[in-house]
Design a protein that fits this description.
322 residues, alpha/beta, 2 domains, 4-stranded mixed β-sheet, 3-stranded mixed β-sheet, 14 helices, globular
């Protein structure tokens, strides 16, 4: 829980640090982060809606039974992401995962081009990650053969829903929940939110569009592919390489990533991690709680290393403040 709320705090802090003004809704079904986030809202003075959602309310909104609330995949990838959408909280909703960081004042217009707007976040590995549905997946998601995929595997860290998109999502989520046992049997319950969106992009191509501007869901380990991300970026998504994997030990920053993750660590990712830690320090400085990650990379190390690394890229005085 503590790691999760620290990610939420850094994400919200980064949003307001860049002067973003879109209405923001933060939901949780755990009273512990609710208390911390409520305190943060009061101390920071930032205006955003914070809502505690009970299990009973979730089940009512999703029109399903309590057995679904016992399924971890449903809690993490269905209830947490789609609650505001199924509940139609606004005419247009942009979902943003909390393991993200805003790196500028965002313009959401490019996402709001259709009923459901997705981001081709994995295009730097497009050949390796293009979705090829199995026979079970084709049948489960009512796809027409041959399946035409719209892009590489779609990551759902950032996506938007409006207009007919609400109905499309509602029908598909209802279908998944009603057939959960079958989904588990056919191994369609892993990465559920993403496989649903991949299926919708293939089946509902008139209503579901994938934009090529990766900056709206810029996976942190791909930042190296666009050196302008520190000045032109929108949303950085840490995805499988969370900042809590990094710490300062014996005069240097190291990481505790596994072998596969370690291959993705690069200087741009490290810069993003330092920016994230600066937002975390800013968010927590007035809060009466213990946040273990603050000791992982102290603020003086964050500022010194950021200044050093950004100076390598920009002329004096031109380095961005993120």
């Amino acid at each position: 829980m503590r790691a999760m709320v620290q990610q939420q705090l850094a994400c919200v802090e980064s949003y307001f640090a860049h002067g973003n003004i879109y209405e923001l809704l933060v939901t949780t079904n755990d009273r512990r982060p609710l208390e911390i986030l409520s305190s943060y809202r009061e101390k920071s003075g930032f205006r955003f809606e914070l809502r505690f959602v009970t299990i009973d309310e979730l089940l009512s909104v999703f029109r399903t039974d309590r057995t679904r609330s016992d399924n971890i995949s449903c809690i993490r990838t269905i209830f947490s992401k789609f609650y505001p959408i199924i509940n139609r909280e606004s005419d247009a909703i942009v979902h943003v995962d909390f393991d993200t960081m805003f790196v500028g004042k965002i313009n959401l217009t490019p996402l709001l081009i259709t009923d459901i707007g997705l981001v081709d976040a994995n295009q730097f590995m497009a050949d390796e990650l293009r979705w090829c549905p199995t026979e079970n997946e084709v049948e489960f998601f009512r796809l027409v053969q041959p399946v035409k995929t719209a892009s590489s595997w779609i990551n759902t860290g950032v996506f938007c829903v409006q207009k007919r998109g609400f109905e499309i999502c509602s029908v598909e989520i209802s279908h998944y929940l009603q057939n959960l046992e079958r989904a588990i049997r056919d191994r369609i319950h892993l990465h559920t939110d993403e496989i649903i969106m991949n299926a919708l992009a293939a089946r509902e191509s008139d209503s579901v569009k994938v934009i090529s501007d990766y900056r709206y869901n810029f996976l942190a380990y791909f930042l190296k592919h666009d050196p302008t991300w520190t000045t032109r970026g929108q949303i950085v998504h840490f995805h499988s390489l969370k900042p809590d994997k990094f710490c300062y030990v014996d005069g240097a920053v190291s990481h505790s990533c596994n072998e596969a993750q370690a291959k993705r660590v690069n200087e741009d990712l490290y810069i993003a991690v330092l920016m994230w830690f600066r937002h975390l320090h800013a968010a927590c400085r007035r809060l009466p709680y213990v946040f273990p990650l603050l000791k992982a990379i102290p603020l003086e190390v964050v500022n010194a290393d950021l200044a050093r690394l950004l100076a390598k890229r920009f002329e004096p005085g031109d380095a961005p403040v993120n």
